[in-house]
Design brief:
InterPro entries: SEC_C_motif. The chain has five helices and four strands. It has about 210 residues and is an alpha+beta fold. The chain folds into two domains: about 10-115, Roll (Ubiquitin Conjugating Enzyme); about 125-195, no CATH class.
């Protein structure tokens, strides 16, 4: 990591009783112009089971959802179910920093164009619904039919007809896909997002870009 990101240093946050990675990312354009951006990476107490969180420590960029940065400067790198984090990868931290580098490069492009330069999900619950639709191959009818099943409000039997209207048994149609979607998003997240009335405000955990890969 030192060879790739030599200006980053581990520092103990005694107040929070945790270790952070802090310092400058140096971006260089094709014409040789360099830009330094101060960041902070915070490690959760259950690291590496859970991934780190990166922040704009010097408020270099405005905190805007269109930039995928929230008010405390947190970088929203991806929708959580799309995270590439692999706790078993020995190079997991370097790969995470590589994703942060791409994210910062896109911030620089946004400075010029005012448009996010890459794929992205919508914000808040809408982003999760977009993810569900993608996992259902973009079939809006299937999404509408299976949404309550994904949320756990409807529980079709595996030998019953699939709610999608295919006239196939649920177990031979969408049972596995629905289970995978619910597991990827997490039942706790689904409950938090949908067991409350609209409007659904976007939060730090629910605003993510998916295109920093």
């Amino acid at each position: 990591m030192k060879e790739l990101y030599p200006l980053l240093r581990f520092r103990l946050d005694a107040d929070a009783d945790k270790m952070n990675l802090e310092g400058d990312f140096v971006l260089q354009t094709d014409c040789g112009v360099t830009t330094s951006i101060a960041i902070r990476v915070e490690f959760p107490h259950d690291y590496p089971d859970s991934e780190p969180v990166a922040f704009d420590s010097a408020s270099r960029f405005p905190a805007l959802v269109d930039r995928h940065i929230i008010r405390n400067g947190q970088f929203c790198l991806w929708l959580p179910p799309c995270s590439p984090w692999d706790k078993n990868d020995p190079n997991r931290l370097v790969r995470f920093l590589d994703e942060v580098m791409v994210f910062l490069e896109r911030q620089m492009v946004f400075d010029v164009t005012g448009v996010w330069p890459g794929g992205q999900y919508k914000h808040g619950a809408d982003g999760y619904e977009e993810f569900m639709l993608t996992r259902l191959d973009g079939n809006q009818s299937h999404f509408d039919s299976l949404f309550s099943v994904i949320l756990g409000r409807v529980h079709p039997g595996r030998n019953e007809l699939c709610p999608c209207g295919s006239h196939k048994k649920y177990k031979r149609c969408h049972a596995d896909t629905v289970a995978e979607i619910a597991a990827q998003i997490g039942h706790g997240t689904l409950k938090r997002l949908y067991d409350k009335p609209k409007p659904r405000p976007a939060s730090g955990e629910d605003i993510r870009s998916f295109a920093a890969a």
